[in-house]
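Notebook, p. 212. Picked up where the previous page left off. The plan for this session was modest: take the two constructs that came back from the sequencing core last week, fold each one, and keep the raw output in the notebook itself so nobody has to go hunting through shared drives later. Recording the first one now, exactly as returned: residue sequence, then the structure token string.
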Amino acid sequence: SLLQEMAHNFPPLQNDRLLKAARGEEVDRAPVWVMRQAGRYLPEFRKVRVETDFFTVCQTPELACEITLQPIRRFPLDAAIIFSDILVIPQALGMKVEMKPGVGPVFDEPLVVPEDMEKLVVPDVKVALKYVYDAITLTRHKLEGKVPLIGFTGAPWTLMAYMIEGGGSKTYSKSKKWLYQHPEASKKLLSMVTRVCVDYLVEQARAGAQLLQVFESNAEYLGPEMFSTFSLPYLLQINKEVKERLVEEKLEVVPMTVFAKGGHYALEQLANSGYETMGLDWTIDPILARKVVGDRVTLQGNFDPPALYSSVEDIDKAVKKMCEKFGTQRWIANLGHGIYPDMDPDHLGAFIAAVHKHSAVKKE
């Protein structure tokens, strides 16, 4: 197809600050991007969403591309992240998920007992999620090399938790019940999801993604032991197998980021997991994190999202403090989780400007 041919002749990259920082190379200042930077806080995003259902946007490459580009037109960011959702994987496994206004994602028929796993279909990931790869390839061209494009997936435990809870949850008790009552079935499900994640990330890289992020958003509901059993092995497998496959298929081996939100108890394990970058949420002191992980990985984060409600002056002060803690190297500036839908875009602009100012390497 035309898009497959397009996947070979992308415009040259003009700003590789993100990729350099991820690989531990020297940068002139910290690269900055923001989780959910293409989202509801932008009026131009809301305009697209008035006419189109959330998952229809994800499944329409032209729309996903347009939304991915919106924050790049507006702000001097150092990366774009493809507009999609972690729940496209449960959809590819045959589950029905809808995005309900004011509620969030809702599954038609969540998994209740291990026997329900028989209803899942093992997809041909190349076909089932083709719309994501098409959106990536199209976006790489439309970006015109301005900044790199990030691809992503949800991590197996986080996806499993949604598939059992049927949506978001304050406790994730139904999915944790599986871990305690049905450990073997849980591992079987996690392995199945892991295989899909690996294929999905390889195809995203093939389509033009230049960095891949794995979102373990529900790490905070596990403790050290459960994490070591039901999350970490699958995170390790994803990093290892994706890179092996990229080598086998003679594709560029792109840097990878793991973000285990609430995983403060696993900093050391995550630092040794083979991912180039690890995300930190806002509950972790960067100085402490750096002590634990040393300088072998790049850190990403970790500005408290609601701190963007502060005045522009206070945002500048808080970012300065954050920059002093992280230093200028081996760090990708970001929030500690996604930006909120009711945020003033100008306050995000102030955050980005402050990172530029306070993370710049001082000239001798």
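Okay, moving on. Second construct, recorded in the same format:
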Amino acid sequence: MAQLLLVVVAACLVGAASASRFSVTDDAFSTGKDHAKLKVLSDGHLGSIASVIYTHGGSVEDLLLPRADGKIKRVIWSHDRNATAVEENADWRGRMLIPYGNRIGGAQYAFNGTTYHLPINDVPGLNNSLHGLLWNRTMEVVKTSASDTAASVTLQYSFDGSDPGYPFALNVQITYTLDVHGFSFAVTATNLNKEGWPLPFYNGWHPYFLCEDPSEVVVTLDHCTDWLYVKTATGPQYPAPRYSNMVPTGQTTPFSRFNGSESIGGNASVPTYFDVEAKAAAGCSGNYTTTMLDPVSGDVLRMSATGFPFLQVWTGAKSAFGVNAVVLEPLSAMSDGFNNHDSLHIINPGQVFTDVVHVSLA
């Protein structure tokens, strides 16, 4: 009996010793007829968590990261396990914006001499196409890994050319990683066309970064470069509160509003409204770091985006949805990139395009 007990104890010790610090697990939640399935990346030591909904375009559902004092903080606005909210997608919470981000003006574009029409899904009064086609597609889980240094999952989706507005053979892989330095994802886009045809592509991400009081938040664009304001058509004929069609005119002007010198402004109930796109004036080796200081909590969020020279800043989450958050939306090309071609990626058959976003708390 004593020998058997020793064997059992030894086996338990071996199992405990072999357990990795990081893990990848499955999760799911349902609301009525709606369902969401997720992969969850976890750090068993710090308590960090990143969850991704692979049944809905690889949306980042939840992100908990350690603060400077070691305590865990929820970083982004989640759906609170409401599958119907995930399915309805009223606010693009955490969505991956692929194969285009932000807007395509008039929901149409021309490429290689052919005009294509995309779904119209902007706010009433604006006939634009918003944020791509991946958001409600089920992605294939290609690979998961977990060790003492990191956890990761790779998801994949292939556009097969059957989308009328985007009839291109595009394969997208997204690898999400959680490690001691924070959370990151890398997007890889590959043209699978076998007849030699190129395709247009750009991407983005739509996180709502939580804060205590949006009016007090200080957003700082990377000081490695000057920034330009991307102008859009404006006028009373467009719906409030933007009074704009939100489609770039092609003009830019010097922009210094988010240089770290002042807060968003307004008050806790009604923060100053911004929905602006900024363009990096210089390359900065392709990497741009935006910081978001929450002076109420003392937290500093850092988002480093490699291959994303554009950033959309939206402060309307409080007025629109009652949530204390600021949207910092990295874009790899200018909004309406299929039409204005500013930084648009033309991917030839067999070519691969990759960009990366990393988020941490300082």
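Notes on construct two before I forget. The longest helix spans residues 2-18.
Flagging for discussion at group meeting.
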